[in-house]
Amino acid sequence: MSEATVRYVPLNQGAGYGVLVGLGLFFSAGMMLLTWMLRRYKKEVITAETFSTAAKSCKKFLIASGVVSSWTWAATLLTSSSKTYVNGVFGAYGYAAGATVQIIMFSCLAIRAKQICPNAHSYLEIVHARYGKAAHITFITWGLIVNILVTAMLLAGGSAVIKDLTGVHVIAGCLLLPLGVILYTMFGGLKATLITDYVHGTMVLIIAFVFGFAAFATSSALGSPGKMWELLNEAAISDPREGNAEGSYLTMSSKSAGIFFIVNIISNFNPFIDNAYFSKAFAASPTATMPSYVLGGLSWFAIPFFVATTMGLTARALQSSDVWPTYPQSLTDYEVNSGLVLPNAAVALLGKGGAVASLLVVFTAVTSAMSSELVSVSTVVTFDIYRSYINPEASGKRLIFISHATVLLFGYVMAAFAIGLYYAGVSMGYLYELMGVLIGGAVIPLCLTLFNKSQNAWAAALSPPIATVLAIISWIACSKGVFGAVDVNTTFEDYSMLTGNLVALMSPCFLIPIFTYAFKPQNFDWEILKNVRRVDEEEELLAAEGVKIDEENSDKLVPLTSRVTQIASNLADLHKNDLAEQETILKKHFKVSLALCIFLTFAFLLLWPIPMYGSKYVFSKKFFTGWVVVGFIWLFFCAAVVVVGPLYESRESLVLVSKSIYWDLTGQSYKFKQWQDENPEKLTAVKSQISQQLSQRAQIVEAKNIDEYLVNEDSDKKSG
User: Is residue 222 part of a domain?
Assistant: First the structure.
C-alpha cells in the first residue's frame, strides 16, 4: 500500500499551521483563564482527585456532552464517511449503530463500578483490589493498548486530513496536534477535558449542520435529497457496488457493509477497558451516571449517521462531476482508508469554505478525544502504577506532578508512534478494525470482574493474553488461507478482520470457565472494594482557603472549618451525599439502565437493520427523503443534549461567575467576598472538604449534629 500524490490542495500551509498552533494555543489560553476564574470565583482547586475525577460531582448533561465528544474520534467522521462512500447508506448506519450500543451498555458498567467501589479513580483499582498484582498488570497492559491505538488513530487520521487540505506534512501534523491538548489537559485535568469537550462538541455539531444544509438545501451541485437520490442511482449504473442489492448505494442490503457492521460492533467494545470512559463515570454524580451515558449514546448516534450519510453519499454522487477536487480522477483505496472522503466531499460542496470546515471539525474531533486519552493514561500511571507499586503514600501534590509528567510524555511518544505508522503505510481505517483483534479478549473478563464473584485471578489474568494470541493467529491464518499472503492488504480484508475480531471477543467464553473451575471459584466479598481510598487533598484545599498548616497542629481536624459547620447544620444535605444513599440510587438506576440497554441493543442491532438487509429493499426517492429528515431530527436532539443541556445545568454558576467578573471590573470585589461568606455551600473547595470527610467517615450520618462529630473525631485522633 503506497500513498498517492496529493493532486489538489485547497488551502495553503499557513492555514494548516494556524489551526494546529494558533487554535491549539487558543484553547490552552482559554482553559488557563477558565481555571483561574473557577479558582477565584468558586474556590475550585486542581488536586489529584479533581484532576482525575473532577471531584465526582459532574451533572448529567455535561457528562453526556463529554461522552459524545470523546466518542467522536477522527474515525467517527472519517471512517464512517469512507464506509458510506464505498458501501452506501448501510455504511453510515453500520458505523453509528455498531458503536452506539456499547456506550449504552457501558452505562451498566459505570453504575456497577460506582456502586461497588465509590472511591475509585480507575477500573484498574477494582481489578487490583480484587485479584492482586498479576491480573492488575494484565489489565493495565490491555488498557494502555486501547489508549495507544485510539491516540494513534486520532493522530494518523487528523494529520492525513490536514496534509490533504493544507499540504502540511504528516510529521508536522503529528508533532503539533498534541501541543495545545497537552497544555490545557495539564492545567485543568478531567474538568478541562469536559469543558473543552463541550466547546469541541458544539463546533462539530455546527459544522455537521453546515454540511447537511449545504448538501440537501443550498448546494448548486446537489441541493435536495431528491437530486442526491438521482445522482446515486446514476452512480449505481456506472459503478455498481458488488455485493449490494442491484449494485445500489441506496440499500441496507450490502454484503461488505454487513461484515463491517459485525466487525464494528466487536472492535468498539474498547470503552469497556478504556479508563477514559470510566473516568467520566467516576466524575458523574450518582444521579447523573445512568442518564448521562444513555443520553450520550443516543445523541452520539446522530453524528456519524448524519455526517456519513451526508458526506459519504455526497462524495459518491459528485466524484464524476467537475466540482470534485481531483476530477477526473477518483480517490485511491489508500486515500479512502486514510479518511480523505469527507474533506474532498466538503470541498466539492463548499469550495475553500468546505476545506476550512473540514479542517476545524477534524481538529476538534482529534483534540477532544485525545484529551480524554491523556487523562486516562495519566490516571492509570499515577494511581495504578506509581501509587500502587512505587510510592503508596504519595501526597496529592506528588501525584499531580506524576499526572502532568505522564500527559507530556505520552503525548509525544504517541506522536512518534503515529509518524512510524505513516511511514509503514498503516492507515487509520486499518487501526480501527485491528483494535478489536488486540483488545477484544479483555472485554468479557472485565465485565465478569464487576458482576460475577466467582471468576478467579487466574481467569482474569490469563484469558486476555491467550484470547489475543488466538485472535492474532486466526487473523493471520485467514489472511493466508483465503487470500494467499500475509501483508497490510490481505490482513485488512473483510473476512480476515471479522475472523480475528470474533475469536478475540468470544474465546474468553471458553477460557474463563476452564480457569475458574480448574483453580477454584473465588466467591469474592464486594465489601472489600469499599476500602479503596481517596487521595488526601487536605493541603491543597486548605491552601485554597488561605489556611497554612504547620507540623505542630497538623493532627487537628482543620478542614472542617466554620464554613463547613454552616453547611453541616442541615444534616439532610449530608444524608444526600452519604454512600449508603448513593448505593440505593445506583441500584435503581442500574435496573433502568439494564432494561434500556436490552431494548436499544435489540432495536439498533436487530429490529432496524435485519429486515431491511433481508428484504433487499432499494430506497425510493420518498423513502430516502424521509431517511434524511430523520437524520436532521436526530441531530437536533443531539444538539439539545450536547449544547443546550450543559448550559441549562450550569446556569447558576454562569450567573455567579458573570456577576463576580462584573464586580471585579467595577471595583466592587467586596460584594463577591460577601457572597462567599453567605453561601459557602456553593464553593467547590468547601464541598470537596465535605465530600472527602464523608467518604472516609460514613458514621457522620449517625451524628446528631456536627459538633458531636467534631468531638468524636478529635477524640479518635488523640487516642491514636
Answer: yes
CATH of the domain at 221: 1.20.1730.10
CA distance 130 to 260: 36
Question: Which pTM was predicted?
Answer: 0.81
**Which of 487-491, 529-533, 574-578 has the lowest average pLDDT?**
574-578
Q: In a 3-state reduction of DSSP, which class is residue 618?
A: strand
Residue 407 belongs to domain spanning: 13-27+61-277+286-525+619-649
As beta bridge partners, residue 618 has: 251
Tell me, yes or no, whether 109 and 201 share the same domain: yes
What's the rounded mean pLDDT across residues 46-69? Answer: 66
Nearest to 57 by CA among 293, 291, 283: 283
How far apart, in whole angstroms, are the C-alpha atoms of residue 674 and residue 334?
A: 63
Q: Which three cell numbers stand for residue 354?
A: 468546505
Q: Clarify whether residues 435 and 572 are in a common domain.
A: no
C-alpha cell at 21: 498552533
The answer as to whether 544 is a domain residue is: no
- Give, in order, the Cα–Cα distances in Å from 400 to each of 150, 535, 537, 548, 561: 24, 11, 11, 20, 25
Do 409 and 484 lie in one domain? The reply is yes
255: in domain: yes
Who's near 516: CB < 8 A, 6+ residues apart?
Answer: 454, 455, 456, 458, 459, 522
Q: Are residues 163 and 232 in the same domain?
A: yes
Q: In the chain, how many domains are there?
A: 2
Please say which residue of 649, 665, 695 terminates a domain.
649
CB 263 within 8 Å of CB 501:
yes
Does residue 458 sit in the same domain as residue 572?
no
pLDDT greater at residue 441 or residue 272: 441
- pLDDT of 680 above 60: no
Question: What is the C-alpha R_g of the chain?
Answer: 26
The answer to whether residues 337 and 78 touch, using CB atoms and an 8 Å cutoff, is no
Report pLDDT digits (tens) over 141-169. 999 999 998 888 888 888 888 888 888 88
Mean pLDDT of 660-671: 78
Degrees, nearest 5: CA angle 623-628-634: 125
Same domain, 312 and 439: yes
CB 700 within 8 A of CB 694: yes
Q: Can you tell me which residue has the cell 473525631?
A: 713
Per DSSP, 284 falls in state B
**588 within some domain:** no
DSSP string, 198-238: HHHHHHHHHHHHHHHHIIIII-SS--SHHHHHHHHHHHHHH
User: Got the DSSP string for 409-450?
Assistant: HHHHHHHHHHHHHHHHT--HHHHHHHHHHHHGGGHHHHHHHH
> Are 638 and 690 part of one and the same domain?
no
**Domain final residue, candidates 649, 666, 691:** 649
Asked if 444 and 569 sit in the same domain, the reply is no
Helices 89-116, 123-131: axis angle to 10 degrees equals 50
Mean pLDDT of 706-710: 41
DSSP state of 244: B
Q: Residue 609 has what pLDDT?
A: 94
Confirm if 259 and 498 have CB atoms less than 8 A apart: yes
